[in-house]
Design a protein that fits this description.
Radius of gyration: 24 Å
Distance between the termini: 22 Å
Number of strands: 16
Number of domains: 2
CATH topology of the largest domain: Rossmann fold
Shape: elongated
CATH class of the largest domain: Alpha Beta
Mean pLDDT: 90
Helix content: 25-40%
Order of helices and strands: EHEHEEEEHEEEEHEHEEHHEHEHEH
Largest sheet: 6 strands, mixed
C-alpha cells in the first residue's frame, strides 16, 4: 500500500519549461521498483501537453489527482511536482496549464490541508518548482509550519527562491533521483527522506538554491531499498563477534588464511571482520590494515558506527 503521484508540466502559455515531464517520468520509474527489481510504489504520472488541450493538467485535474492520492489509507502516499511555482500575499501555488491572473493553480495551502487530512499513515511531498519552500508555511498561521504527525516535505528551494533547470531537467529532481538510486543509501541500502535531504543539501553550494526539509515524524520511513553494502547476516552476528561493544577483539596469525598455520574457524570470522572493515564498522588497532593486525597479533575494534549497528543487532532490529 504505497502510492505515488508524479506530476510534470512543461507547456505553459506564458513560458515553457523543458524537463518537467521527464522529471516526473524518471521519478515514477525509480519509485516503482526497489533496487533488486521488486515492486515498490504503485506510481502514476500526470503530465499535460499544450495548455488548453482536453487532457491538460488543469487546476481541477491536479486537485482531483492529489485528493485521490491522499484520500484512502496507505502505508505511504508520495507526491512529486515538477513545473512552475509562484507566490503572492495569499499563498504559494503549483501552477497549472490553465493558469490566469489571480488564479494561478493549486494553492500550496490546499495541498497541505489534503496531506494533513490524509488517511495515509505517512505522507511525503517533493516539490521542484520556484518558491516551493512556501509549502508548510501558510501566511494565515504566521509562517509557522503546521504538519500533522507522519508528514515529510522536501522542497527544491526556499519560499523566496527560484528553482534551477539543468541538463534537461530540474536540478533538485535530478539529485533526488540520484539519491533514490543509491546515492543516499545507508549501509543496509535503505533510502529515507532525511537521507535524501542530506544528499541534496550537500550537493548544492552556498550560492545555489537552498532546499528545505520539514517533517513531523515519529519514525523514519524507507522510501526505496538499494543494494546493501554488507550482508545483513554479518551485521546480525556483531554481538557474537564483539560480546562487549567497547572491548577490542584480539587477533593472531591464525585468523589470516595465508599464514603458516591458519585456523579454519578463525579464518571464517576474519572474513566477516574484513567485510565490516570495508564499510568502516571495524578498524584494526595499532596497524594500518587488518592483515597486519592479524599477523602482528594486534586487535580490531568497533567504530562508533559499528557500535550503533551492534546495538541494532542486539535489539534484533536488523
Amino acid at each position: 500500500m504505497r502510492r505515488a503521484l508524479c506530476v510534470g508540466i512543461d507547456r505553459y502559455r506564458f513560458g515553457n519549461l523543458q524537463g518537467c515531464v521527464s522529471d516526473a517520468e524518471r521519478m515514477s520509474g525509480v519509485l516503482s521498483v526497489q533496487g533488486d527489481g521488486a515492486p515498490n510504489f504503485e506510481s502514476r504520472v500526470l503530465a499535460g501537453p499544450l495548455g488548453g488541450a482536453p487532457d491538460a493538467v488543469t487546476r481541477a485535474k491536479l486537485r482531483e489527482a492529489v485528493a485521490q492520492l491522499f484520500k484512502d489509507r496507505a502505508d505511504v502516499a508520495l507526491l512529486h511536482f515538477s513545473g512552475h511555482g509562484t507566490i503572492n500575499n495569499l499563498d504559494g501555488y503549483l501552477v497549472t496549464q490553465d493558469s490566469a491572473m489571480y488564479d494561478d493553480g493549486m494553492g500550496m495551502g490546499e495541498v497541505l490541508k489534503l496531506a494533513n487530512d490524509s488517511a495515509a499513515e505517512e505522507v511525503v511531498i517533493l516539490l521542484d518548482c520556484c518558491h516551493s519552500g512556501q509549502l508548510g508555511n501558510p501566511p494565515e498561521v504566521n509562517n509557522r509550519a503546521m504538519l500533522r504527525e507522519g508528514i515529510s516535505i522536501l522542497t527544491a528551494s526556499r519560499g523566496d527562491q527560484p528553482s534551477v533547470e539543468t541538463a534537461g531537467g530540474g536540478l533538485f529532481t535530478s539529485l533526488v533521483v540520484d539519491a533514490l538510486e543509491g546515492g543516499a543509501a545507508d549501509i543496509l541500502g535503505d533510502v529515507t527522506a532525511p537521507g535524501i535531504y542530506a544528499y541534496v543539501e550537500a550537493a548544492l553550494g552556498a550560492w545555489d538554491q537552498r532546499p528545505l526539509f520539514k517533517a513531523h515524524v515519529s519514525r523514519v520511513v524507507n522510501l526505496r531499498c538499494c543494494e546493501s553494502a554488507i550482508d545483513r547476516a554479518i551485521l546480525r552476528d556483531l554481538p557474537r563477534l564483539f560480546p562487549l561493544p567497547a572491548e577490542d577483539l584480539p587477533l593472531d596469525p591464525g585468523y589470516e588464511p595465508s599464514s603458516a598455520q591458519p585456523d579454519a574457524a578463525k579464518v571464517a570470522i576474519f572474513e566477516s571482520l574484513q567485510k565490516l572493515n570495508r564499510v568502516h564498522l571495524v578498524v584494526p588497532v595499532d596497524a594500518p590494515h587488518m592483515y597486519e593486525a592479524a599477523m602482528g597479533s594486534k586487535a580490531c575494534r568497533l567504530t562508533a558506527s559499528g557500535r550503533y549497528y551492534w546495538r541494532l543487532a542486539t535489539g534484533k532490529r536488523i
